[in-house]
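Human: If only I could read backbone structure tokens as easily as an amino acid sequence. Take your time, and here it is.
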Amino acid sequence: MNKEHILNEIRRTAKENGGTPLGWRRFFGETGIRESDWLGRYWARWSEALREAGFSPNQLTSPYGEVELLDRYISLVRKLGRVPGKGDMRLEARVDSTFPHDKTFARLGSKARLLARVIEYCQSRDGYEDVIASCKAYRPRSRAPDAEPVWRCAPSDAP
């Protein structure tokens, strides 16, 4: 593995990504070039490799606000016609680079808490009956028979 090969792969993958260079983890996934192939050998930081390849370093993603997360989740519920699972959210993030990673939604609490927030949010607006129905129809796989339905969990019940 030489430096020029790595730089060429950075340029190639950036071109395939619409001109935006990949982060080093995704770069590894796309190319098989490990961090240990370049870190401390040619560059001390990934941003230095990107600069040498002719790119500006990647910027950190700014955090999503709660309303934006709810809106993005709701749009996926509507797209699927049901409550999305972790795999659905990961696939959507892969297809749509602006969709938040599934772990980002954990900021809103457990799945039950997330759905309760979605329901509360939708109930305060017109035209979200389909989303409310999907959320209320959701039943987790490992649910205890006497457990409270997800939609009865109030957002204020958060610890």
Notes: The mean pLDDT is 88. The chain has two domains: 3-52, 66-157. The first helix runs from residue 3 to 16. The chain has eight helices and no strands.
